[in-house]
């Protein structure tokens, strides 16, 4: 590690001001940022802790959408009766993140702000056509995730909540890395209230993306067989020691079919 100034914000406005003034990094659960700092992959001069801002955590229904605060921990999403009632797929997704320590410390906002290419939450946001709410604006999930570890957030912008429209059906299935529990391939499938189908894939490429071929097949027949029959193009998919691009392409269809069966 190296010298770093620690600031604890009391309000969202306070946090934004500190980030704007220092050019530092916001600290949510710390499961990504602190690990990156230890490896010198991130070297912020200042970290601004958001844990002391109570309004950033919590779950509530807001009209026809489920609003989850940015500082809500994965474990709290997994155990929330409100989440299990409205969108049980989100509770199941949160329950499968990392290990117990990660779930008890890691947060929804921290995960999506980091935008790890193998993280689970981005697939849920894109799959459900969610909206990211910040201290200054609202951003559609399809516009929020820009690329590997890249989002639409500005330096002093803070995620306050994510609004998830309640779907007719939804489920998430992933093939996890046995060590990290990150998704080698994870697929979130949703049939939205208007009947449209969205299929979002994480872990297979540099950032979350929609599997439009599977969406088209499921719009005609929302069945596991229809999803599994789609041949996914391996072009542009990740190719590393954990799995080839061709293997990941095969897994996308397999995980999509499992998600449809679960939904």
What does the average pLDDT come to? 96
Strand order of the largest sheet: 4-5-10-6-7
Extract low-pLDDT stretches.
Answer: none
Counting DSSP H or I runs of 4 or more residues, the number of helices is 12
Give me the Rg, rounded.
Answer: 18 Å
Distance between the termini: 45 Å
Largest sheet: 5 strands, antiparallel
Q: Write down the secondary-structure element order.
A: EHEHEEEHHHHHHEEHEEEEEEEHHH
Q: Enter the CATH topology name of the domain at 167-263.
A: Enolase-like, domain 1
SS elements, strand count = 14
Share of β-strand residues: 15-25%
What's the shape? globular
The percentage helix is: 25-40%
CATH architecture of the domain at 167-263: 2-Layer Sandwich
Q: What does the model show?
A:
With 263 residues, the chain is of the alpha+beta class. Among the domains are: 5-49, Uridine Diphospho-n-acetylenolpyruvylglucosamine Reductase, domain 2, CATH 3.30.43; 167-263, 2-Layer Sandwich (Enolase-like, domain 1). Helices cover 35% and strands 24% of the residues. The chain has helices at 12-22, 33-38, 74-79, 81-86, 88-95, 100-105, 108-114, 121-127, 141-144, 212-220, 224-228, 245-262; strands at residues 5-8, 25-27, 46-49, 59-62, 65-69, 131-134, 138-140, 145-147, 150-151, 159-165, 169-176, 183-191, 197-202, 209-210. The protein has a five-stranded antiparallel sheet with strand order 4-5-10-6-7. A four-stranded antiparallel sheet has the order 11-12-13-14, sandwiched between helices. The longest helix has 18 residues, at 245-262. The protein starts with a strand and ends with a helix. The mean pLDDT is 96.
């Amino acid at each position: 590690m190296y010298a770093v100034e620690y600031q604890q914000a009391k309000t969202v406005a306070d946090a934004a001001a500190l980030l704007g003034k220092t050019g530092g990094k916001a600290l949510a659960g710390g499961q990504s940022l602190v690990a990156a700092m230890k490896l010198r992959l991130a070297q912020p001069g200042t970290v601004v802790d958001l844990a002391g801002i109570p309004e950033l955590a919590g779950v509530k229904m807001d009209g026809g959408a489920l609003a989850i605060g940015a500082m809500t921990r994965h474990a709290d999403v997994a155990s929330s009766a409100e989440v299990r009632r409205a969108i049980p797929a989100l509770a199941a997704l949160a329950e499968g993140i990392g290990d117990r320590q990660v779930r008890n410390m890691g947060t929804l906002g921290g995960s999506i702000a980091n935008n790890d290419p193998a993280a689970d939450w981005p697939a849920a946001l894109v799959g459900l056509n969610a909206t990211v709410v910040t201290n200054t604006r609202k951003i559609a999930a399809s516009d929020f995730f820009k690329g590997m570890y890249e989002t639409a957030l500005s330096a002093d912008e803070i995620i306050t909540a994510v609004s998830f429209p309640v779907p007719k059906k939804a489920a998430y299935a992933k093939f996890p890395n046995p060590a990290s529990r990150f998704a080698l391939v994870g697929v979130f499938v949703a049939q939205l209230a208007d009947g449209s189908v969205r299929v979002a894939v994480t872990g297979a490429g540099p950032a979350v993306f929609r599997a439009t071929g599977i969406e088209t097949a499921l719009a005609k027949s929302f069945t596991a067989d229809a999803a599994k029959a789609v041949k996914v193009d391996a072009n542009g998919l990740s190719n590393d020691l954990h799995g080839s691009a061709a293997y990941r392409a095969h897994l996308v269809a397999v995980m999509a079919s499992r998600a449809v069966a679960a939904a």
